[in-house]
Write a structure and sequence with these properties.
The protein has a two-stranded antiparallel sheet. The chain has 9 helices and 2 strands.
Length: 194
């Protein structure tokens, strides 16, 4: 298993835990409001929707004061957690889909079909592919990975948020598509060695 896969999985688990914890606290806060003032069922729903991540202070605060709901006296709401990352399989389809999401976030054009077509032509889908016979290899900078990127091109077009590793399938796809966007308008416009 790759180290980058382990980190992504742990991040997803952490985000999932944070979202679950926020939901538990919101339910507890809503219950405390109901106990404090049973005439506010519509406000409970409104508060639950508006502030889903109430702090634990709201749940633990005494609910005996009927003049004001406990939630109104609670500490400021914690920031909402980031949305959970999509679960990408560790295969060609997953690498392309993850790359497309990163590309979309960075305004890099390209389609699944264009990326897939070029990967099959360049490496037959092998992320460990290396070209040791062309002009780049003769100069000591062989083409590597799914989209046969040379190290200087990978470094110049690397996209933040991906590993600084030309062998990482997602990083290789995103950097190559970034290069193709600057040179050809999109990876979709590449129909031969580039």
């Amino acid at each position: 298993m790759k180290l980058s896969s382990i980190r992504r999985k742990n991040l997803r688990e952490g985000v999932t835990f944070a979202v679950a914890a926020a939901g538990i606290v919101a339910v507890a806060a809503s219950s405390a409001v109901s106990v404090a003032d049973d005439s506010v069922p519509s406000r409970v729903a409104m508060i639950s929707e508006a502030k889903p991540a109430q702090t634990a202070v709201a749940a633990a605060a005494p609910a005996a004061k009927a003049e004001a709901p406990v939630v109104e006296k609670a500490a400021a709401a914690a920031p909402a957690p980031a949305p959970a990352a999509a679960d990408y399989p560790d295969n060609l389809d997953g690498w392309i889909r993850e790359a497309l999401d990163i590309m979309k976030a960075n305004n890099i054009p390209g389609s699944y079909e264009g990326i897939y077509r070029n990967i099959i032509r360049e490496s037959a889908g092998n992320p460990a592919a290396i070209n040791l016979w062309d002009s780049n290899a003769a100069m000591g900078i062989p083409s590597k990975g799914l989209l046969q990127t040379i190290d200087p091109t990978f470094q110049a077009y690397h996209v933040a948020g991906t590993p600084h590793d030309v062998w990482d399938p997602v990083a290789n796809i995103v950097a190559a598509c970034n290069y193709a966007a600057h040179r050809y308008g999109s990876m979709d416009n590449v129909n031969s060695a580039y």
